[in-house]
Structure to design on (496 residues):
């Protein structure tokens, strides 16, 4: 159906079969990225597999709701009414993993969701004022932040391949003979009439025996196969198929893992076909002021990134982005984040790969993304889908994680490629020092051991440290030089 003179292509209603097909394309393009964050955070919280599967379902459900509201619009206050698919932002992964490590289990989940709800509410309130912050975020700052996000996440992808630093797949385990000896000493010291001093409180054995479950050759080979499939599809496939290369690689890896007996479907079989997403599944949220501030800082970065995406999308669709439209779109980032906290999931933003898909396909209708949102809602209501994703061995996700997280870093590099380093050598200092700050928690995760524990989540995120450093250094060297045009160019270069 062609748009008429009175109907902008963004507002064009396509036939239902075409809407479904094009909406499904958007879902497939974002699916791998959408499932990554609940897997990362769920496992960092040390939740049971059924709870991790629930997080995945909840994420898909809220992805759909937020996408529908953003593209369709909900009153004049929420939704930019452009073809936008909403997904969990990778920028929040570092702080959430830090919160999870400090407070595993349901309590940690409640603290994370409390921080998300609080930050979402504040985001709704400050969204109209974000345009005044653009001057603090020229391409040298946004490119550096996105680069650090990707580099920080690479640690997770690499651990998916070889094994996690702690737990059953840690590089080393405790020698069973040493453990038996220590237990016998404890029993002897506790016996009546024993002259042995009691074992000091908190004493434990250090892992010293190489763990056969860490980095087995079979895992490395399977990850390389997944990576090879992704590279092959990206290199030789054409059109839409090349855009879903990561998803194809994950599916291929899952099939191989299942054939080798590495993937089990018991929990998939036991999962229901249809179930609602209950709010506050893990209990009522805990509102910690420091955690909320941490997440608000993340959301400011997210809103700046979203602003660039919206401006770039306006150019792609030939739809002028007005200040009220921009504020409504950013408020939806906040509302989506509030919904995320209520329905047991995470902060939301526009997914850049879907913005890129609009440019690739040339389909501008926002109702395509509404259809994609409906599909995501349906997928979220099918627990078997979440259980199937959770059943994937992390080694399969590792090969894909190298690509997904590496692409985030590469996007930052592409934005930085447009920065003038020759005429303004001070930009080198901004990138170099900010990158160094971003690497502190990666290289020295215990650096804040003597700092106040309350600020742990704030300083434990390389993304936040790099963001603060980049903004401050840019003010020192360049002043407040950012503008909407620079942000638009940065977003366009990221999606080119």
């Amino acid at each position: 159906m062609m748009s008429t003179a009175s109907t902008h292509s963004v507002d064009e209603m396509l036939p239902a079969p075409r809407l479904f097909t094009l909406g499904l394309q958007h879902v497939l393009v974002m699916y791998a990225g959408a499932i990554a964050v609940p897997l990362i955070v769920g496992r960092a919280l040390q939740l049971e597999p059924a709870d991790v599967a629930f997080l995945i379902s909840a994420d898909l459900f809220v992805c759909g709701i937020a996408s529908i509201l953003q593209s369709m619009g909900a009153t004049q206050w929420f939704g930019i009414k452009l073809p936008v698919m909403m997904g969990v932002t990778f920028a929040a992964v570092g702080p959430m993993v830090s919160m999870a490590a400090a407070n595993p289990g349901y309590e940690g989940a409640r603290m994370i969701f409390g921080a998300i709800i609080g930050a979402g509410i504040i985001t709704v309130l400050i969204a109209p004022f974000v345009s005044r912050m653009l001057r603090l975020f020229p391409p040298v700052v946004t490119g550096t932040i996105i680069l650090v996000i990707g580099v920080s996440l690479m640690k997770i992808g690499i651990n998916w391949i070889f094994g996690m630093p702690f737990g059953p797949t840690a590089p080393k385990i405790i020698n069973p003979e040493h453990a038996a000896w220590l237990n016998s000493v404890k029993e002897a010291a506790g016996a009546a009439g024993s002259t042995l001093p009691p074992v000091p409180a908190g004493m434990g054995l250090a892992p010293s025996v190489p763990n056969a479950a860490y980095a087995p050759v079979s895992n490395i080979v399977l990850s390389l196969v997944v990576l090879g499939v992704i590279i092959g599809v990206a290199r030789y496939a054409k059109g839409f198929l090349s855009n879903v290369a990561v998803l194809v690689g994950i599916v291929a890896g899952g099939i191989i893992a299942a054939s080798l007996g590495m993937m089990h479907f018991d929990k998939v079989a036991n999962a229901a076909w249809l179930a609602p997403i209950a709010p506050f599944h893990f209990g009522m949220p805990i509102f910690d002021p420091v955690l909320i501030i941490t997440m608000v800082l993340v959301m400011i970065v997210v809103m700046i990134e979203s602003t660039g995406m919206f401006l770039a999308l306006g150019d792609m669709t030939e739809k002028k982005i007005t200040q009220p439209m921009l504020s409504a779109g950013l408020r939806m980032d906040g509302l989506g984040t509030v919904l995320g906290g209520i329905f047991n999931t995470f902060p939301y933003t526009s997914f850049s790969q879907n913005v890129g898909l609009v440019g690739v396909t040339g389909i501008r209708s926002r109702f395509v993304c509404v259809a994609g949102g409906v599909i995501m809602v349906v997928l979220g209501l099918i627990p078997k889908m979440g259980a199937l994703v959770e059943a994937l061995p992390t080694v399969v996700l590792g090969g894909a994680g190298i690509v997904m997280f590496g692409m985030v870093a590469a996007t930052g590099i592409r934005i930085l490629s447009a920065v003038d380093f020759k005429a303004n050598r001070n930009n080198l200092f901004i990138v170099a020092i900010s990158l160094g700050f971003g690497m502190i928690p990666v290289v020295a995760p215990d650096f804040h051991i003597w700092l106040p524990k309350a600020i742990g989540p704030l300083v434990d995120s390389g993304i936040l440290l790099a963001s603060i450093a980049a903004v401050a250094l840019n003010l020192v060297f360049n002043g407040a030089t950012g503008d909407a045009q620079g942000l638009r160019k940065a977003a366009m270069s990221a999606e080119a």
